[in-house]
Amino acid sequence: MTAMVHDLGIRRGHALRAAVERGLAGTADPVVGLLDVAGVEHSVAELRAAFSTPGVEVTHTFAVKAASLVPVLALLAECGMGAEVASPGELALARAAGVPADRIVLDSPAKTVEELREALELGIAVNADNPEELARIDALREESARAGRPSASPVGLRVNPQVGSGSIGAMSTATATSKFGVALRDPGALEWVLAAYADRPWLNRLHTHTGSQGVPLELMAAGVLAAYELAERINEAAGRQQVETLDIGGGLPVNFGSDEVTPSFSDYADVLRAEVPGLFDGRYALVTEFGRSVLAKNGTVLARVEYAKSSGGRPIAVTHAGAQVATRTVFVPDAWPIRVLALDAKGSEKTGEPVVQDVAGPCCFAGDLVARGRELPLLESGDHVALLDTGAYYFSNHFAYNSLPRPAVYGYTVRPDGGVDFAPVREAQTQAEVVAESGGGLPPLRRAGA
Ligand SMILES: *Cc1c(COP(=O)(O)O)cnc(C)c1O
Predict the structure, then answer these.
(1) Neighbours of 270 (CB within 10 A)
(2) How far is the CA of 290 from the centre of ligand 1 (A)?
(3) Which residues contact 391 (CB under 8 A, 6 or more apart)?
(4) Is the CB of 156 under 6 A from ligand 1?
């Protein structure tokens, strides 16, 4: 590996200045996503080191929904990660990125028969969400066995340990009434699960995912413990190691308040080692499915300030980054606050007295603000803003409001002399593409003549 600049913030500063200088956030494309390639490699290395245990096979998959960008998935695959996919589109992206089938896991609450058939034919691991889905898998396995092409897919069942909610309800998947998995504490559920495994000797995995952001480590570990204890019961009943693999999901929260990585992957692995020691004693292979914690801190949205104005005495910077790239922050600002840097016309951090101001986006609704009443050096037209920690679920999860185009995304690498190399990850969507995806090539709707 080439030498690199070691501090995330310093690399980001170089990249922001270079991006502005090269016009990556110019008048034609006034908003862009930037991803720190060395940072991504570092995060994956931290993840792998945290879980690495002699005698335990660990497969780290990346939750594709957190950054559905093929070159990024390919980089992660090169770093040794697999992919957790939850739709036919996400599976196609993982395959396009060259992720090997034995490192792909299909989770989704609404898998169609066609989707399941494809996964089982490809040998991709499938986690069934509910009894009806398991029955479909039974039928598909029989169909392929009859055809002389038995499926090699490992199959698991997703269970909801119902351990409770974290601070963000929409992100908490292990509540009493969550839509995900088999709710373990419901009357009769445990007996049903034990019978399901007893009836299906090939059912060899167990899956749980307790939440995404806002779930404390102890609660995540409690969910994993419940799954582990269930696996032990299944295996005891079977008189053998029927459940070979425990898929413990993702969900490590990210600190959106500073550049510090807290909690770290090793903080979480330490809690798991303390709370669920049997996970690491070599009897189980492990699968993880982290998304946000792998990429969030490695990504930045850079946008130009188009206008600076004042309303009711409140200064407002009207920028090109709003709900289309920071959807959750705009719609649920209390749950998803992000840091915003004020940058000058050259992309350097502005100095000067902090002034209470709003940082607005380009969308035509009043709530399109990425920061409200934030103290920042006063932004002026021609300046820029950087939305930090936006490497996961932000620029990669575009919201097509106002027909705003998907922005370009670049990976960046900072050389020891401070020079920056950019590599395209996704091109900005063109206006022709926006028109085409909006039915532009189709004939006009005809009047019904009523
Ligand atoms: C979203 C999701 C993940 C990833 O969650 P993060 O919070 O991004 O780590 C993992 N597994 C499943 C099943 C998910 O739905």
Answers:
(1) 15
(2) 6
(3) 35, 36, 40, 67, 295, 296, 297, 298, 299, 300
(4) no
The answer to whether the CB of 212 is under 6 A from ligand 1 is yes
Helices and strands, counts by H and E, the chain: 12, 18
Q: Which is it for strands 203-207 and 245-247: parallel, antiparallel or unpaired?
A: parallel
In order along its 450 residues, the chain shows pLDDT tens digits of 445 567 999 999 999 999 999 999 988 899 999 999 999 999 999 999 999 999 999 999 999 999 999 999 999 999 999 999 999 999 999 999 999 999 999 999 999 999 999 999 999 999 999 999 999 999 999 999 999 999 999 999 999 999 988 888 878 778 888 899 999 999 999 999 999 999 999 999 999 998 888 899 999 999 999 999 999 999 999 999 999 999 999 999 999 999 999 999 999 999 999 999 999 999 999 999 999 999 999 999 999 999 999 999 999 999 999 999 999 999 999 999 999 999 999 999 999 999 999 999 999 999 999 999 999 999 999 999 999 999 999 999 999 999 999 999 999 999 999 999 999 999 999 999 999 999 999 999 999 987
Q: What token pair was written down for 378?
A: 């006063």
Check if 14 has its Cβ closer than 6 Å to any atom of ligand 1: no
Contact in structure between 285 and 56 (CB atoms under 8 Å): yes
Distances, alpha carbon 67 to alpha carbons 94, 119, 186, in Å? 11, 21, 34
Structure tokens at 252: 């490590």
Q: Which of 43, 73, 84 to mutate to test the pocket of ligand 1 (most atoms within 8 A of CB)?
A: 84
84 lines ligand 1 (CB under 6 A): yes
Domains of the chain (ranges, CATH numbers): 8-35+297-428 (2.40.37.10), 37-294 (3.20.20.10)
Here the tokens at position 182 are 């088999």
Distance 235 CA to ligand 1 centre (A): 27
* CA atoms of 414 and 346, how far apart (whole Å): 18
Q: How far is the CA of 400 from the centre of ligand 1 (A)?
A: 23
Residue nearest (by alpha carbon) to ligand 1 atom 5: 251
Neighbouring-strand partners of residue 206: 157, 246
Dihedral through CA 101, CA 102, CA 108, CA 110, nearest 10?
A: 60
